[in-house]
Amino acid sequence: MAVATQNVRVGLAQFNPVVGDIAGNSRRILELYAKAHDANCDIVVFPELSITGYPPEDLVLKSGFVAENQQAMREIVAATQGCVAVFGFVDGSRGSLANSAAIASNGTLHGTYNKQLLPNYSVFDEDRYFTPGDSFSLFTIAGVHVGVTICEDIWQVDGPVHHQAKAGATLNININGSPYHRGKFDERQQMVSERARANSCAIVYVNQVCGQDELVFDGGSMVFDHRGDMLMRAEQFGESLSFIDIAVHESTVASAIPVVEVSQASRASGSKHEGVITPTTSDMEQVFGALVLGTRDYVRKNGFTDVVIGLSGGIDSALVAAIAVEALGSQHVHGVSMPSRYSSEGSRTDAAILASNLGVDMQTISIEPAFSAYLDMTAESFAGKKADLTEENLQSRVRGTTLMALSNKFGWMVLTTGNKSELAVGYFTLYGDSVGGYAVIKDLLKTTVYELCRFVNSRAGREVIPEAVITKPPSAELRPDQRDDQSLPAYEVLDPILELYVEQDRTAAEIIALGFDEALVRRISRLVDMNEYKRRQGPPGVRVSLKAFGKDRRLPITNAYRG
């Protein structure tokens, strides 16, 4: 016997909130709601904590902030019409804080759902702020039983989605603030498909899209039918309002939990909205998209329009400049060449060619006068001492001071250019090349930097980053004929060890047992450990790996463990 189905028109409002901008986020919710209502949607779905932005972190400890967010929730509810809105807010009405979803239409709050599974791992620490929910209702919308869940609730096999389906839900709405890391998109998609199929329940999954400090939320909202087949997928790294008509089978289960009657008839009319499945993209395209979005949002949401980058002629600064141009436009990116007595003519030329290729303005400010002045200033104190790392770091610090002077004078944010390999082993100068507002590629191992530069050129169909920049041996050019491999192992050797030690949390002993050279592993692990204090003083940057320096890798600076 065929199971009866009911058509439900759903709008997926994948938008870019600003954390803490309660008024601005609320206006955006109402703008998108009006469009969904005009499209005769039965339901329009917004991301997790869409009023406050996600994650609000310690803002929720301010009672005034929570009160403002709750007032905004009430105002949104009052503005609703026939289309049901599902949106996120912080609920403080029960004496404790909850990460909640509001379900509203026709000026009525039909109910709320409090997130039951609070993640407390990696970049998440929701146990710090919220009390988990312990109950739920179903909602009859357009004649079908609808369950509502929030982000982590969907990841557990026998979690809230499962329990709501057993209670009679044939459509589940899951609102999210799910951050990106490499591989996350495919993992997330497979999981939602499995959850839909296992519970014979259509799932609408809506994710926010934004950069928030280190985190990037990549969107990629999607819809699966009760068989686990994809019906729709929104783009990654861009806002969208998508409409889809879903044929939802009617429940044959007599619910043992409360069912809130909202509407029996669908509002859908006119031509059917078929789901558009946006094509998937390559790993490098996703990484590039995350870096662009993270940079754009950090710069603009913090009140800057322009950035300045020290263009050395090296591969790291070249990649940062290419990302910045994509994020902000060439007219908002300023390059500075800061040659010293050790700078090669090739590096100066490469920097100039890059700037021309990207269409950014570039000025040259020699650091030689300042460096010479420092040598003269310290000559008496340093008498009898050979030149060493001290003089190299002086050059780097002069460059950092120069960039910060330009930042102060013109209001440009300084983008630092260090990569994860360098940050890991401390191959950077504190208060020198680490100075700046945002570290765009701090979570890219050096080998990935090369790979992404090749992608940038392939994507453009031309040589944006000069081939000479990609192929020449990397060098800080702080002493005659300097190369990175004089101080560090080749990056092809270094990066696999760093990936194991930093991103996979393997001990040195475990890595050695895998066949890596013991002396090399001990040296690298020691460098990583002893430079934690330097990394703590650096700017935030885009997280693209499973474990980045910053929010999700938290090791003590004072630490004697050498496993």
Total helix count?
Answer: 16
How many structural domains in the coordinates?
Answer: 2
- How much is the average pLDDT? 94
**Uncertain segments:** none
From the alpha-carbon coordinates, what is the Rg to the nearest angstrom?
27 Å
The CATH homologous superfamily of the largest domain is called Carbon-nitrogen hydrolase
Main sheet? 7 strands, mixed
CATH architecture classification of the largest domain: 4-Layer Sandwich
CATH structural fold name of the largest domain: Nitrilase/N-carbamoyl-D-aminoacid amidohydrolase
Structural class: alpha/beta
What is the approximate shape?
Answer: elongated
Q: Give the distance, in angstroms, between the N- and C-terminal Cα atoms.
A: 63 Å
Strand content: 15-25%
Q: Into which percent range does the helicity of residues fall?
A: 25-40%
